[in-house]
Design goal:
It is built from four helices and 28 strands. It folds into two domains: 44 residues; 304 residues, Methylamine Dehydrogenase, Chain H. The strands form seven sheets. The chain has a four-stranded antiparallel β-sheet with strand order 1-28-27-26, with no helix packed on it. Strands 2-3-4-5 form a four-stranded antiparallel β-sheet, with no helix packed on it. It has a four-stranded antiparallel β-sheet with strand order 6-7-8-9, with no helix packed on it. By secondary structure, the chain is mainly beta. It is elongated and about 150 Å long. Helix 1 runs antiparallel to helix 2.
């Protein structure tokens, strides 16, 4: 039945029910009920059926970055699907396109291979040279405070102070037996100290010779010294007599080094001379002239097997030379300032340590030339030494302190090639 017939029918009943005397009271009541029923039926026919709304999916909770989530737990229906956990996002790092990239530092895991540094404080002026005793138990340091200090590495305490004079004491080297110590005195003579008494055993040379570098031969019978007058001198340790004079340098000659077998001695040039010369000790004959550095070769050292010679220079590099041929093998570049503090090979010769005025000590892989580690220092590194077993690196600086790092596992560093 359509909309119009329904309405006409209802209107007719209403008029009948309200017309005076047309129907009895009972009939009026029946008509009223019928009207109500027709109205209900009409409403059901006219309204369209509502489209069923599917159940809403359970919303996924999103953690706001501004408002903290209440810790109160919301009851979960027994038939609910467990929510998938959302991983916490790391705080984003802001990168500036104009910023200078930071230097790459060793990973935290790699840092475990180098122990926290031990600081030895006692000098009242800059540290000028360092050397470990043959057993590694003592460290000798010279300073511009005119003293030589002997440190017990195990305790970090000074066990002996040798007074050098009224001015700078520089250059220090332990004899192979550990009982003798050689230093360059303020007047640039060489003093040999008996460590059992703490007294000077003898002095070698004269003030006019102006020594500026020294080293004992491996067997302890000779002492080599470099001098301001460009000469290298070899001394008999027992008698203090001059054995041989080696010439050929063209400028200040300070660094000297013996080969491990004692058959060769090398020297490095300073000022206007940038060469490294290698002589035969027995004959005094010049074996090689190594050319490649800029002026000022500060330190030189032979590798443990005697096959290589390392030289550190004011040109910010360390160069490796083949001792047999005299050819340059490799250049280690990375320091930002002159490499004046020192250079040393690890006991097996696979790694090399260098110290520089750029406030760093750097560890290098000899075979590849790759820089493996950078150890930061508080000031310009003025002196460097490596313990005989390679477990400790000592570096002195112009802040009057010596910093000692422990490296218990050189083989782990080697594996980083």
């Amino acid at each position: 039945m359509g909309r119009l017939p329904y309405r006409n029918f209802i209107y007719a009943i209403i008029r009948l029910s309200v017309k005076p005397n047309a129907m009895s009271t009972f009939r009026k009541q029946i008509a009223f009920v019928l009207v109500i029923l027709f109205l209900v039926a009409a409403c059901g026919q006219e309204e369209p059926a509502a489209t069923p709304i599917p159940p809403a999916a359970t919303p996924t909770a999103v953690a706001s970055t501004d408002t903290p989530i209440s810790p109160t737990a919301t009851p979960v229906p027994s038939n609910a699907v467990p929510a998938t956990s959302v991983p916490t996002l790391a705080t984003p790092t802001t990168v500036s396109s104009t910023s200078t990239p930071a230097p790459i530092e060793p990973s935290p895991a790699a840092e475990t291979e180098v122990s926290a540094p031990q600081v030895l404080a006692g000098h009242s002026d800059a540290v000028s040279s360092l050397d470990f005793s043959p057993d590694g138990a003592l460290l000798a340091s010279t300073g511009q405070d005119n003293t030589v200090r002997l440190w017990d590495i195990a305790t970090g305490q000074v066990v002996q102070v040798l007074q050098g004079g009224s001015n700078l004491v520089k250059g220090v080297d332990f004899g192979p037996d550990g009982n003798l110590l050689a230093t360059i005195e303020p007047n640039q003579t060489i003093a040999l100290w008996d460590l059992s008494t703490g007294q000077t055993m003898r002095r070698i040379g004269s003030p006019g010779l102006q020594a500026c570098g020294l080293e004992f031969s491996p067997d302890g019978t000779l002492l080599a010294s470099g001098h301001v007058d460009t000469l290298v001198r070899l001394w008999d340790v027992e008698s203090g007599e001059l054995v041989r004079t080696l010439s050929g340098m063209e400028g200040l000659t300070c660094p000297v080094a013996f080969s491990p077998d004692g058959a060769l001695v090398a020297s490095g040039g300073g000022n206007t001379d940038s060469r490294v010369l290698i002589w035969e000790v027995a004959s005094g004959q010049l074996r090689h002239t190594l050319v490649g550095h800029a002026p000022n070769v500060y330190r030189i050292v032979f590798s443990p097997d005697g096959a290589l010679l390392a030289s550190a220079s004011g040109d910010r590099t360390v160069k490796l030379w083949d001792v047999e041929s005299g050819e340059m093998v490799r250049t280690l570049a990375g320091h930002g300032q002159k490499v004046m503090a020192g250079v040393a090979f690890s006991p097996e010769g696979a790694l090399l340590v260098s110290g520089s005025a750029d406030r760093t000590v750097r560890l290098w892989d000899v075979e590849s030339g790759q820089m493996l580690r950078t150890l930061r220092h508080g000031n310009e590194v003025s002196a460097l030494a490596l313990s005989p077993d390679g477990s400790m690196i000592a570096a002195g600086d112009f802040d009057n302190v010596v910093v000692v790092w422990g490296i218990p596992r050189w083989e782990q560093l080697t594996l980083k090639r």
